[in-house]
Amino acid sequence: MSKGADKRPIVIRRKKVVHAHHGGAWKIALADFMTALMALFLVLWILSVASDEQRQGVAEYFSAPLATAITGGDRSGSTNVIPGGGPDPTHTDGERARIDTLQRTRPSSQERRFFEELQARIERAIEQDPELRQLRSQMRFDLTREGLRIQLLDTDQRPMFELGSDQVASYMRSLLRTMAPLLNELPNELSISGHTDSVPYAGGYRGYSNWELSNDRANASRRELVAGGLDPDQLLRVSGFADRVLLPETESVDPRNRRIELVVLLPEIAEAIRNPSILSQGDPVSDENSLEETLENLPQADTAQ
Fold this sequence. Notes:
By secondary structure, this protein is an alpha+beta fold. The protein contains 11 helices and 5 strands; from the N terminus they run H-H-H-H-H-H-E-E-H-E-H-E-E-H-H-H. It has a domain at 109-301: CATH 3.30.1330.60. A 5-stranded mixed sheet has the order 1-2-5-3-4. Helix 8 links the parallel strand 3 and strand 4 (235-240). Helix 2 packs across helix 3 (65-72), helix 5 (109-127) runs antiparallel to helix 7 and helix 7 crosses helix 8 (210-227).
């Protein structure tokens, strides 16, 4: 054989090394993060262009999503178990009435603004009078499901009535007569309730008692408001609760429980007081209400004769 025939081609084999990757979990995490970030920016944009009423509606949805879904949710599709087969079991008449009443008794943003303006006018009128200015610490304003509540609280140093009597103190008279024309500025009807502490009369409840006293003081306040210019047609309810509705976190003998409460009523509440059958269709009082609001929402709790 020839020398050239012994030469063979040299083949170099190189081993290909494949480096294993660390997995794609980070990609999923990044995608989730970007989706959440995009949703956040979308929510912020919606909030920036939404009106106050729209934001209030969103807040109400998240505070009671089931009620909102039942009363105002999308019902484009059939909600019957069997098409055409009777009412939806989740929308029974009583439950719908209860939820509708509950939703209606929440002041709208416009009503809130009117109540806040009324409160501001009353506070300005009191601040301008040196005598009434001293009573500002004995007044409380808050917004309940019934409407704007104005509480006039008693103290041992400055009682609003003579002890054990419905005789109005001079400064209480001035305060009520100052408030009267301001209350006329809103067409809403008014509720007046009287309250006492638990100090009993000598005869207990057999004779003149805290029931009569609270009712008499409420009516004495009514007379002073009318004398100050309040339209009598705006008065819807005058009642006495004796010592049965105490202020939260107070002792039963606390002088602050001797008080007069004025409530500028929401129209829906005023209508429910006139027609108790509206309330009988469902309980309009939620678990968030205090005992005081519960009693005041029930017309049968009134003790006025």
